[in-house]
């Protein structure tokens, strides 16, 4: 390879690195939170998190009995894994998508069933799995 071409690549990557450092510095100073949500699991969970949450009577009863709280559900929606093979993501426009989210709650594996509608997310069921 030609040494002038290598030199150009060196300048390019050095400038790119300096630009990324400056960009990160300015973005961090503004309190902007960067979030990597490009994979299907992350996009789905983010889509559910930003919507108004509603709870089924079953989950509401668990919350009333202090067996679970909304913070724990938020943690599941942040750290959980969507089981796309059992979820019903391809439905008609007038029905809600149904997602099965697997996560941990107090060191137990659980499944949270969420009905993801246009403007709301209904937490339908939660159960312990083996």
From TrEMBL:
Q: Transmembrane region positions? A: 9-27
Q: Check the record and name the InterPro entries matching this protein.
A: DUF4258 (IPR025354)
Top-level taxonomic group: Bacteria
Query: What UniProt keywords are attached to this protein's entry?
Result: Membrane, Transmembrane, Transmembrane helix
Keyword check for Transmembrane helix, yes or no. yes
Q: What is this protein's name?
A: Uncharacterized protein DUF4258
- What's the source species for this entry? Kordia periserrulae
Its taxonomic placement starts with: Bacteria, Pseudomonadati, Bacteroidota, Flavobacteriia, Flavobacteriales
